[in-house]
Amino acid sequence: MQRAAQDLLLDLWSRTRIDWGFASDRIAETFRRARWLGAQDRREVAETLYGMIRQARRTDMALESSETSLMSAASIDGSRRELARLMAYRLLAGEIDEADARRELPEVTWDDVLSVDERIANVRDPVRRFALARSLPDWLARRFLDEQGAEADALCEALNRRAPLTVRANALKVTREELAAKLAAQGIETRPTKLARHGLHLETRTNLFGLADFKEGLLEAQDEASQVVAELLDPTPRSIVVDLCAGAGGKTLALGALMKNRGRILALDPSPKKLEELRRRARRAGLSNHRAAQIIGGEWPAEATALLGRADRVLVDAPCSGLGALRRKPEARWRVTEEHAARLPSVQEEILDRAATLVAPGGRLVYATCTLLRAENQEVVTRFLAAHADFELVPVPVELAAPGEPYLTLTPHRHDTDGFFAALLVRRRAS
């Protein structure tokens, strides 16, 4: 890595570590200012930053073993400390060798750094040992061990990998096969997603947003699990659909394509910035059967209240801890606290309760999150069903469900998707 790019990376790392803010936003902001940075350096800076975030706890453990106690010595300059973190991460990742690290920082005992996994294996507390090995806070390691059992290690190892670049072919303009052929003509290899009908994994690294196909609205970046959630709603071209937590509109666009630009979609969100992004994306995609409206102070707009008891399909992609998407947002493991996660189920239940009032008899209600914590998923649905006798849970196809469960549960180690949960609920017709 060039010295100028390394300095930029260390500045990004220092700013990210202060509050564990959204790394993707800070990367984009930095790259807008650093127009001198080439494409290869941009890719290396971004991937290294994500890797440092993912491995932050393990890296610190490695450096704390140094005879100089670099992480705690008051005499060590702060910039040298951050450089040590970078060198330790790259050494443990196999990107540099010990001689490279020693030339950069001779005061660090790099033999000790390389022995970090042996020392972690000797930690007696099983939760702390797991947390150090997979670079997680103790509380989250404990939850994964308790809830995932024998699969916890494979899950967390997968959450520490880089996510694939996945797109959805916009069926309003192109088929998946046609899009694959167009990309292949540009030297971009792809493979079809296994679960989502319109998805492609891009095997060739590329600047997706610079592609003419993207600018023409032929594709959207969207994880396969997110595409599957939209398909689970199964809207028809004549449906009235409400996307209650639409955000920037990824699932709204997917639903509109499934509906062949017919029927009606109402996309709701409290963020005007996200809704404006939704409108911009919809124009590019050629989507015309939607309306985006803002929720202000918790109050629904008139367009939503007019649909009480009339919507054929309602999607609640609920605000959540986001811990199933750590491959894409690794900083969430450090930003989300146990206390914050504990407050989320009450918010999710309130949104789901209100969403139920929109559903017509016989209509579908899908509750979805990108987390894998049971308190935000199965337990929310269980309490909802206990309070709403007019709704029933419909099992999802077996290939989408966790063993022995009726819910959609997709995970990176089983499906190479983000971690996603969804429950399919149907409002009973009056007898």
Description:
It is a single chain. By secondary structure, this protein is of the alpha/beta class. It folds into four domains: 3-125, N-utilizing Substance Protein B Homolog, Chain A (Orthogonal Bundle); 126-160, no CATH class; 165-213, Sun protein, domain 3 (Alpha-Beta Plaits); 224-427, Rossmann fold (3-Layer(aba) Sandwich), CATH 3.40.50.150. The protein is built from 21 helices and twelve strands. It has helices at residues 3-19, 23-33, 39-54, 56-64, 78-92, 98-104, 110-114, 116-121, 126-133, 138-148, 152-159, 176-185, 212-215, 224-233, 250-258, 272-285, 302-305, 332-335, 338-356, 378-387, 412-415, and strands at 165-169, 190-192, 199-202, 219-221, 240-243, 264-269, 290-294, 311-317, 359-369, 391-394, 408-410, 420-427. The strands form two sheets. Strands 5, 6, 7, 8, 9, 10, 11 and 12 form an eight-stranded mixed β-sheet that branches. Strands 2-3-1-4 form a four-stranded antiparallel β-sheet, with helices on one face. It is globular. 41% of the residues are buried.
Strands, count: 12
Q: Into which percentage range does the β-strand content fall?
A: 5-15%
CATH fold-level assignment of the largest domain = Rossmann fold
Calculate the terminal CA-CA distance, rounded to whole Å: 69 Å
Average residue-wise pLDDT: 94
The poorly predicted ranges are none
CATH architecture of the largest domain: 3-Layer(aba) Sandwich
